[in-house]
Specification:
The structure is a single chain. By secondary structure, the protein is mainly α. Helices cover about 75% and strands about 0% of the residues. The protein contains four helices and no strands. The radius of gyration is 20 Å and the shape is elongated.
Length: about 100
């Protein structure tokens, strides 16, 4: 096997897997609609990319480092948008409640 082949395969895989996050980031950014996005899934994904990036640094694999850091940035962006939109929705619901309606006991 040629020495360059693993790096080429890693680069192609990195481009494809990293670019898969771009449409979700663009959609969440433009539409501000993240209801269908799982916050817990992206928390796990962000954690995984942190660990994969660290592993890439430890073994000195530039494709693993670069593409996992890029994927980390994109998935963290989605997570931040999700958290921000959930908080906005929650505060909007709280502000629409009528203050004088307490339960009678």
């Amino acid at each position: 096997m040629p020495d360059w082949l693993p790096s080429v395969l890693a680069t192609i895989a990195g481009i494809l897997s990293t670019s898969s996050f771009v449409p979700q980031v663009v959609k969440a950014w433009r539409e501000r609609d993240t209801r269908a996005i799982s916050k817990h899934m992206y928390m796990v994904t962000v954690t995984a990319f942190v660990l994969w990036s660290a592993y890439g640094f430890l073994i000195g694999s530039w494709p693993m480092m670069v593409f996992n850091v890029l994927s980390l940035i994109l998935s963290a962006t989605i997570l931040v948008l999700k958290i921000r939109n959930d908080r906005r929705k929650s505060s909007a619901v709280m502000s629409h409640r009528e203050p004088g309606l307490a339960r009678s006991g």
